[in-house]
Amino acid sequence: MRPERLTITAFGPYAETEQIDFTQLEGRSMFVISGRTGAGKTTIFDAMTFALYGRASGALRNASDFRSQYADPERKTEIDFSFTIREERYRIVRQPQQPHPKNKTPIPHEAVLYEWADSWKPLATKVGDVEQQIESLLQLDYEQFSQILLLPQNQFRQLLDSDSMKKQQILQSIFKTEAYRAFQENWVERYGKYRKQVEWATETTRLKLLELEDDDIETVAERNLPEIQDWLEAREERLLTATESLRGERDIQSKRVDAIRSELEQANALVRLFVERDEQARALERYKSGEADRVERRRLIERLEASSRVRPLYDRYLANRQDIERLNHDIDGVQTRLTQYASKLDELHAKTERIASSKQEVETITARLKAIDDMLPFVDEWQTAVTERDELKRLTDQLAVFKDDSRLTELRRQEEMLSAELAQETTPNRLVEAERKYDRLTAHAQLEARFQAVTERLASCERNGKEAQRRHKAQSDIVEQFMHEEQALWAQKLSATLVDGEPCPVCGSRTHGTVASHEVTSDQGNLVAATEMLKQYEAALHEVRADYRALKQQAEEVRDELESSRQALDLSGSVQEATVLQERLIRSLRDEERARAQAERTYRTVMTDLKRLEKEKRELTERRQQLLERLQAVQERLQAMRQPDAASLQQLQAERDAQSTRLDRLQQVIAQYERELEDATRLKWTETERLRLLNERLDLEKKRFDQTETELEESLAKNELSRDVFLTNVEQIDTLSSLQEQLAEEQADGIRLEHGFNALTDKIGDAVKPDLVLLNDRLTTAQASLDALAEQLVTADSQLKRHRHVISEWDRLRDQTADEQRNLETVKLIADTGRGLNPQKLTFETYVQTAFFDQILHAANIHLDLMTSGQFQLERKVETAKGNAKSGLELLVFDAYTGQSRRVQNLSGGEGFKASLALALGLAEVVQQLSGGVSLETMLIDEGFGTLDAESLDQAIELLMSLQSSGRLVGVISHVQELKDRVDARIEVKKSRSGSTIQLVVE
């Protein structure tokens, strides 16, 4: 941030409008603000800080007190501050809350941030939005700004002299180390959660052991680990012994069952042999009953075998006959086509004389066309020139008119209109003023609602007051009655003690009247209670009356504020109507802003189109001029040529076209005739040759057919078959193989059945068929005993496996819990270390801050070395503080003259100033290095340099002047004359009875 112009109006000691134009520094890197005490030097820094953040530059001043007591009541307090950030210009106009000159309603705090874009455009119009935008642009909040760019009065040595806790707060606000604090707190929270998790894991391990189904397990679970493990091993041994015993009994019973099952299987096998032998006997009987069918099938097979031997000759006989029929059909087709081709040739021979005449005409036309072609070049040249002349005339006539001329005129009119519209002076502040008035209307509506609420509370308070007064009156009567009875009782008691002639202890009279005697009782407890209740009612009545007076005063104040606000706003109707009208005005102004922006965009578009069309028109004019020059040249060439007769030219062209058409037609007719004649002659010869070949093949096939027929008759006779029988059997020849296979299978089945029956009879021998029912009963009984033993074994084995599984899970959970306990120790160590429970008493956040602080000290010592000629070096104290005090950020100063370190609080005023200045410069450099987006182009120091001697002052000035190389602007408030003499740019603040004034002096 680099200031450009600061305008102060009715602010602090400045009654009028004062302006500082920083651009007049003309590249100077340092200026001094000087003046008498109380003149308003610090107020200049306050004005800059107030413009940016709405707060004073120092912690001891309040922004609400900035209204100048010297200013005219009609003059508003306002700061107008323009500055640059990375070559971008910004401007802030801010007014603090201040009294209204005519009514009690104060003028609210207002702020507007502008951005330069050809003109000042509002960027933010509300106080909160302005603050957010400033922090975003500067990348610094108020606390960071006050520590880095501005070093306020009485806070210059704060970072140097503060304790570790205060430094931690300062560094936290500058470097935003809250994330590291959250990190260390997160580890503490994680430790708490993880500790609960480990406790739950320990309990889960114990509960896992209780899953063993044993009466003694709860007692055992309370023992120590070795005893538990011994008990578990003994229990596993008992379960294993019981399981092995049951497994032995099961194996013995299983062998018994296997023996019975083997005996039953042998009996079943013998029964199956009896059943199989009976089935074989029945099948053999069925085979023998089908012998007659097999004999007939053998005879059919013999006939089919004889027919199959004749069949190849029969197939060849049929093929020869089909070949003869096909050849006869082909010969008929060839003869038909020969007749057609002969007729076609006769027709073509009849056209021979006409074709010869056409060929003679072709030669004549060709000679005529050659003569015409010899005459046409001259005519073509003339015609080409005429055509070019006509085309150039057409183009020049076409280009004589600009098609977008009306559009060009319209664009020029729009450009003039938009220029005039945009040339009108804009009022950018109207929207801001309208929004401010809208905010005041909203505040007025809130005042009305507040007045309504106060009025309702006042009415309610009045009702409560009447009720309190009624209760107080009733209770007063009760107390008065009690007091009257108490007085009567005391009167009776006193009259009983009076003696005639002796003075009364009350009135002193020696004569005593007679007191009426009646029954009087005294209840002291009720009197005290009634009196106490009366006091409570009286206090409540006073409280209600006080509330009523306060509410009435509040209602009057709100009424006055409403009236003042109404007068200030000049309201003639309801605030709701005025708010609606103001909203409409704001929308209208925003529409005007948008309309102006749209007009600017339209203007840019119109100018673009206008320039484009003007360019096109210029190019069109230039092109037309070029065409006119070409037209002049063509006309001169035509004048130099002899113009041919127009009629002879047309006649030649027409004759050439007609002769060419006639020639093409004749050539097509002659070519067609020659193709047809050639095709017909070729086809007739081809078909004649084909007919000769077909007749030769037909004679050959007939001879083959006769020979095949003779061989067929001889084969039928040899196999003792007539033609009819053969033709009947030939259809069944395809079934021969299946009939042969069927017969062979039936014969094989017969042999197999007879052999099988004999084999089964021999195998059974003299054996008797066994009783399967008895054997199955024995097997069922033995199997039941085996199943019972197996079930007992499964139960015992399941108990053993369950025992081992639970123990395995228990061991796993113990190991896992042990690991988690070790991890818990690690988490605890990290959490304790992060929150400062370590030998160095450093939290994680403080540790990170020490890293930043070390960088600051490194940069600061470079400057301190220059200002102290190498005497002093700042160093961070690494010793641990006593007790629970925070440590890690305390500062020591090393004195090279003594070779020892001491506390920075022991430095003299001048030495402390040098150390503070070096520390401030180091802080600014580190922040700029770590945050590339931070703009640190300015440093403002509100410290007088009065504690420095001449040599130290020179060193400090040289140091500040060296910042010029980085382009930083340094402003210093000082009374020191030597400093003012060394710096050639001064802001002189002059104090008077009517307020202070400012003058910028540049030498």
In words, what does this structure look like?
The protein is α/β, with parallel strands linked by helices. Among the domains are: 1-149 and 936-1003, Rossmann fold (3-Layer(aba) Sandwich), CATH 3.40.50.300; 165-209 and 836-934, Rossmann fold (3-Layer(aba) Sandwich), CATH 3.40.50; 217-285 and 771-820. The protein has helices spanning 41-53, 127-138, 142-148, 158-161, 164-175, 178-209, 217-221, 225-288, 291-350, 352-399, 405-423, 429-497, 524-569, 575-640, 646-718, 723-729, 736-764, 772-834, 844-867, 909-930, 950-962, 977-982, and strands at 2-11, 14-21, 30-35, 78-85, 88-95, 110-116, 120-124, 150-151, 872-876, 891-895, 900-903, 938-941, 969-973, 985-990, 997-1002. The strands form 3 sheets. The chain has a 6-stranded antiparallel β-sheet with strand order 2-1-4-5-6-7, covered by helices on one side. Strands 8-12-13-3-14-15 form a 6-stranded mixed β-sheet. Strands 9-10-11 form a 3-stranded antiparallel β-sheet. The model has no long low-confidence stretch (mean pLDDT 80).
